[in-house]
Amino acid sequence: MIAVSDLLKHYPDSSSPIIDQLSLNVIAGQSVSIQGASGCGKSTLLALLAGFEQSSGGTIVIAGHALERLSQEAADSFRMHHLGVIFQQFNLLDCFNVWDNVAFTARLKGNYNASRQQTLLNNLGLADRHKAPVSMLSGGEQQRVAIARALNHLPDVVLADEPTGNLDEQTSDIVSQLLFNYCQEQGAALVVVTHSSDVARRAQTQYRLHQGRLAQE
Ligand SMILES: Nc1ncnc2c1ncn2[C@@H]1O[C@H](COP(=O)(O)OP(=O)(O)OP(=O)(O)O)[C@@H](O)[C@H]1O
Ligand SMILES: [Mg+2]
């Protein structure tokens, strides 16, 4: 489902590459966690996998699409059809309430289902927040909305950047279980970046990003 080979990413101002000849394979239904020091390039790697950043070399093939060959328009369509992305900074749409944020991609994609969405929001502890403007939510609530939005359109690849970073321990447990269960049940590939060893341990394969490459734990 995800095949990355010899991936390279240089930022113009830095002397060494932030991602250096990195390879990664994730099959359908497989979960992978990535830990690593702050600033080592974890979010950069996810941005490359999502096609938001251009690589400096190497190849990324996701669900049969070679990302380096996609136009901007094709990349947007690829993301809508295949990816559920949970951003470190949430990236919610401030002008919409909880319900419309979560429904957004599913409506665009044409697989919106109100009852499925209701169940997802209930399971994430957001049952009584449907109508709340997202700007009125706590950080942890916004994070759960971001997770709901990423899963609600049934993506076959989920990229999650610190999905429990703003949650208390108990909520983190519930939410990470939901995330891993989703991928197992849907046969989706999951890449989760986390500073939490508890979350990392839930993954079938655990990696650490160091000096631009992944080492299996
Ligand atoms: N657009 C950019 N231009 C130049 N440098 C960048 C850019 N984006 C990120 N960087 C740099 O690349 C490095 C890696 O950043 P990244 O956000 O990938 O780290 P991270 O591993 O996700 O860290 P954290 O755990 O703190 O979220 C940082 O030094 C950052 O300043
Ligand atoms: Mg990051």
UniProtKB/TrEMBL annotation:
Kindly give the InterPro entries that the UniProt entry links to this protein: AAA+_ATPase, ABC_transporter-like_ATP-bd, ABC_transporter-like_CS, MacB-like_ATP-bd, P-loop_NTPase
Classify the source by domain of life.
Answer: Bacteria
Per UniProt, the keywords (alphabetical) are: ATP-binding, Nucleotide-binding, Transport
Taking every annotated instance into account, which residue ranges of this chain make up the domain ABC transporter? Answer: 2-217
Name of the molecule in the record: ABC transporter ATP-binding protein
UniProt similarity note: Belongs to the ABC transporter superfamily.
Asked whether the UniProt record includes Transport among its keywords, one would answer yes
One GO MF term, please? ATP binding
